[in-house]
Amino acid sequence: MKNPRWRVAIVDDHPRSRSELSSAITAAGGVVAAQSAHAGEAVELIGRVRPDVAIFAVGLPDGDGVGAARAVMAAAPCPIVLFTSHRGDELIERARAAGVMGYLLKPLRPGELPPALDLAIARYGEIRRQRLEARKLIERAKGLLMARQGLSEEEAFHALRRTAMNQRRSMAQIAQAVILSESMAKDVLARS
Question: Phi and psi for 138 in degrees, rounded to 5?
Fold first, then answer.
C-alpha cells in the first residue's frame, strides 16, 4: 500500500482483539505499523514507530492503558484511542486527563473504527495547533513586556503566569490582552 489512510500502533494483550483491529484497519485502508501486548513497551514503541494514531486496551497484564497513554503523551505524543469493554465516568475522566482522543467499545464494530481514528487525529491536530498559537502569543507578549518594562524573559513569563492565575484565565488570553493593549497604545500615540 503506497499511501495508507493511517499508520496505527496497537497496544492490546488479547491476540483476538489485535487481529480484529488489524483486519478493520487494513479493510479501511490503513496499516498496522506496530503491535505490543504490554503497557511498559508503549512509550518506546510509539517513540520508535511514530504512528499517526495508536489504539490502547485499558486492561493490560503489566499496567493500565490509561496510564500508558499518559506516559506516551508526556514522552512521545500521539493521538490515542482507547479500546475497551469498560464504561463509566471515572474511566472517561481518567482518559480525558491522560490526553486520550477517542474511545472504542468492545466488541469491535469495524464501521466505527474509521470515524473514531479520523476524529482522534483531527482533534489531536487541532489541539497541537491551538497550543502552538498560544505559545506564539505568549512569546510575543513576553517580548512586549521585556521591551516595555525592562523585564528579563523569565520575569516576563512569570508576570504573564501570575496574572493568568490571579484572573483565572489562560496565559494565552492574558498574552492576547497584552498584545491588544500595546496595539491600542500605538494607535493612541499615532493619533496624537
Answer: -65, -45
